[in-house]
Write a structure and sequence with these properties.
Elements lengths: L6 H18 L2 H7 L4 E2 L2 E2 H29 L13
Antiparallel strand pairs: 1-2
Helix pairs in contact: 1-3
């Protein structure tokens, strides 16, 4: 069974997303992609920027859904004195 996400894991993933997204659109990375090539007639840099943008939107959506599940899950209290033994 997969481990359930916790608030800390989600917060860390979002922080990593911000750092990665920033790094992917910095001028040195854009310079690597800025070649005189096209993809279906569209310059490669435009395809790259929109792909990064779309990826960040999808990742944000996934993290928002997971954060919603974590915040709505109710933890059942444990009572050590009631345990069998």
């Amino acid at each position: 069974m997969a481990a359930r996400p916790t608030r800390t894991k989600i917060r860390d993933a979002v922080a990593l997303m911000v750092l990665l997204g920033t790094w992917l659109v910095m001028p040195p990375m854009l310079g690597v992609v800025n070649q005189p090539t096209t993809v279906l007639g569209i310059p490669s840099i435009v395809v790259y920027v929109f792909a990064v943008w779309g990826g960040l939107i999808v990742f944000t959506r996934v993290m928002a859904r997971r954060a919603g599940r974590v915040s709505t899950r109710v933890e059942e209290p444990t009572y050590p004195e009631r345990e069998a033994g």
